[in-house]
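BUG: 3D viewer hangs when loading the predicted structure for this chain

Environment: internal workstation, default settings.
Expected: structure renders.
Actual: progress bar stalls at 90%.

Input used:
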Amino acid sequence: MWGELAESGSTAVVGAMDTDAWQGTRARVSRMFGRGRPIRQARYDTQLDDHAAQVARSEHPDEARESLVAVWRLELQALLHRYPDAAEELR
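Structure tokens produced before the viewer hung:
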């Protein structure tokens, strides 16, 4: 049900990791996952930072991005399943 939205969202999140738009994207994504819970949001901040660092230091950044798109697709599908209202935020 949420596959297409999760796919496009994960591609956008990972694609922004090495761009000037990263900080804004990171803030919106962690806030969306945090759902108003600061500790949860901080966990996603850390996860997003770690993944962005993986892309930055990778000898094969396209492969790193491809792997991370799959990770974030699953994260987004789970979020959308638990919180269908997050679909509007993701769009």
